[in-house]
Structure prediction request, 243 residues.
Amino acid sequence: MGIMMGTDAIVVPGLYVGYPGVAFGGYVAGVLAERSEAKTVRVDFRGPVPTDVPVRIAETAGGGVELGETEQPLAAARPAELLLDTPAAPSWDEAAAAAERFRAAPPSGVVDCFGCGLRPADRGLRMHCTPVPDRGLVATAWVPSPVFAGPDGLLPTRLVWGALDCPGNWAGRLLGTQRPGAVTAALTGTIVRPVTAGEPYLAYAWLLSESGRKHMTGVALATAEGELCAVSEALWIDPRPAP
Prediction:
């Protein structure tokens, strides 16, 4: 007898946008990670996920989840392993100074992204990362808004994953050769401990490798005291050069 898999649809609200008209990748990855229920999940993106319209989501064999039509899924998640050497977190003061540098002089390529756009705290995650001097990483001091909390006061898994996305972009941009307009092609993440809305955290990212249009970055979330909460590894791909 074949395995019966659950199938339904989700709608990504327009609040959770990355590039114009495209759902924020970290949020989408988090939705799939919630469905997978595996400790560590890899999400591969294969096409832009729209906002404000129903999109099919279905469980697949082996603890996987896919978003979009079977013949051409837009994203697919599967259980994975994550072997990542995570550097020590910067201090709160270092991360706060990095965030202020971003807001005072935003890097080129900033868009109205739920993750790193210049939005008020109740409309976005504000992952405003710039390099920390002499550390080889970018960072931001972060207090997730209580408006995003679940009934238990915790940040939902999909938004913790959201916080694991954009810092990797800024690591590639500001520490490497990544170009504006790059997209998340794959995101592998794991949550180590809950994240409480309204509490102070550190988000930081570092460059792992680069090859042509491909850029690998690592991201970590930690408490203000430096205790690890979540980590991820991402593959970012530059836009194709104009002909």
